[in-house]
Amino acid sequence: MSIGKTLKRIIAAILVLSMMMALTACGGGKEQGSNQENNTSEGEKTKLVVVNWKDYGSDDPRVIKYFEQQYNCEIVHEYMASEEELLTKLRTGGLGKYDVVLPNASILPVAIDEGLFEEVDTSKLENYQYIFDKFSTLPENKKDGKIYAVPWVWGSTAIAYNNELVDEEIDSINVLWDEKYKGMIAFRDDFNDAIMTAAIALGQDPSNPSDLNAIKQKLIEQKPLNRTYWKTGDEWSKLFANKQIAVGMMWSGQAATMKKAGEPVTFVVPKEGAIGWVDYWGVVKDAPNKDMAYKFIDYMISKEFQLQWTVSGGPAPVNSEAVNALDKETINEMNIGEDSLNKLYFIEYHGEDVKKQWNELWQEVKAQ
Question: Is the pTM higher than 0.90?
Answer without folding.
Answer: no
